[in-house]
Specification:
This protein is α/β, with parallel strands linked by helices and 400 residues long. The protein has helices at 3-14, 20-30, 34-45, 50-54, 78-87, 103-111, 124-133, 176-179, 195-204, 223-231, 275-286, 296-299, 345-350, 358-369, 372-378; strands at residues 56-59, 62-65, 93-97, 116-121, 138-141, 156-161, 208-219, 235-243, 248-255, 267-268, 291-295, 316-320, 326-339, 390-398.
Length: 400
């Protein structure tokens, strides 16, 4: 390291950089002269994101062009891009919605030369930047689906969404380089961070091809709410990528098919095989049980696409007994996610198990959830529930 290099590192470190050596290396490699290096350094010391200063960001092995004022692609979003690469069928169509620099589209394009790639964003500056990063794909400006050409309606195999999901109140807690230099529209996800996810969920189904899916980047803590947004609009929601180290997940939504023959409907198995399952199935058939409750954790226990996932409104199920015999067919008509402490009396009574108070309902369910079978299923021998445990409250109706 030269004296000048060392001085640059010290200046960056004094400004608060925790990766001063790496930033110094990038700045020097990206500058063509001492004057340009100094100009870049001044911008960085003033708080501008390094990627906007040098004009590029590393993403999935690619160098993505970044212009001032555009959301900087994060490494965590590689989860979303890789999920899109894996999910796209041969010769399919992949849309990068809320594309920013178009990093997801660029990586899909790089990895899959057989697919058609389209990107869109509400910010015209971001769209211009995305066009710089796409070799074959096209980028459009507009609000969510309003930006897409009409020929994509019903033709999209994968719609990858990196919409803003920072809760409004948390933006003030973000590093200055993000909150002061990236567009608010690319950060602010509303009160709970899921407002744009809800808008995506409300409008995405008509744009999906048969068998298509929407992939949404979200935080680990927001998985239940992102999944619920998709489920409320007729999509079974599962986690297809989950990185606990960085607290990021990708939730996939696939439209359900209530028109399937009974034998092809997904099974609805209450509790575990045995007398309790058979009794609950009988209560459903008799009309005495119209609600059921699941732990959020049990629906997403593995954090991958093999999980049961969030059931969807409009989804139909074949209720089966312990011998896998079909008892009846039901449809999910309502879903809620709630804290255990917030479960209401009507839901508890409508479970049909004789509980006349929420306290009795909670006591019986706690025994089940903290029992050996559930603990084994969750892989957690010490699992317990408390007031803040999240549960899915589902209302059913018998349709056959």
């Amino acid at each position: 390291m030269t004296v000048d290099d060392d001085r640059l590192v010290l200046r960056l470190r004094a400004s608060g950089s925790v990766f001063a050596e790496e930033e110094a290396r990038v700045l020097r490699a990206s500058s063509g002269s001492a004057d340009e290096l100094e100009a870049m350094t001044v911008r960085r010391l003033a708080g501008e994101p390094l990627e906007q200063v040098v004009g590029w960001a590393a993403f999935g092995g690619l160098r993505i062009r970044v212009v001032p004022g555009v959301f900087v692609p994060r490494r965590r979003t590689e989860l979303l891009a890789r999920a899109a690469v894996a999910a796209a069928p041969r010769n399919g169509v992949v849309v990068d919605l809320c594309c920013g620099t178009g990093a997801v589209a660029a990586l899909v394009e790089h990895e899959r030369d057989d697919v058609r790639v389209v990107a869109s964003d509400i910010d015209p500056v971001a769209v211009g930047c995305a066009r710089l990063n796409l070799a074959r794909g096209t980028a459009y400006a507009g609000d969510l689906f309003a930006a897409l050409p009409e020929d994509l309606r019903g033709a999209c195999d994968v719609i990858a969404v990196n919409a803003p999901y920072v809760p409004t109140a948390d933006i003030a807690l973000m590093p200055p380089e993000a909150r002061d230099h990236e567009p608010r529209v690319a950060l602010d996800g509303g009160a709970d961070g899921v407002d744009v996810h809800r808008r995506v969920a409300a409008g995405v189904v008509p744009w999906l091809a048969p068998g298509g899916q929407v992939l949404v980047e979200t935080s680990e803590a927001q998985v239940p709410w992102t999944a619920l947004a998709l489920a409320e609009h007729g999509m079974r929601a599962r986690v297809v990528r989950w990185d606990e180290e960085i607290g990021t997940a990708v939730v996939a939504g696939t439209p359900v098919r209530p028109d399937l023959p009974v034998e092809e409907l997904p099974p609805l198995e209450f509790a575990f095989a045995g007398p309790l399952r058979d009794r609950l199935a009988g209560l459903v058939l008799a009309g005495g049980k119209t609600t059921t409750t699941s732990l959020v954790r049990e629906l997403f226990v593995g954090g991958d696409e093999d999980d049961e996932g969030m059931p969807a409104v409009g989804e139909r199920w074949r209720v089966v007994d312990s011998d896998d015999a079909v008892v009846c067919v039901v449809e999910t008509v309502e879903l809620r996610v709630a804290r255990l402490a917030d479960v209401d009396l009507r839901h508890a009574v409508d479970e049909g198990e004789g509980d006349e108070t929420v306290a009795r309902w909670r006591a019986s369910h706690t025994r089940f959830w903290e029992g050996e079978d559930m603990r084994a299923f969750l892989g957690d021998p010490g699992f317990t529930v408390d007031d803040d445990t999240l549960v899915v409250l589902e209302r059913l109706r018998v349709v056959g």
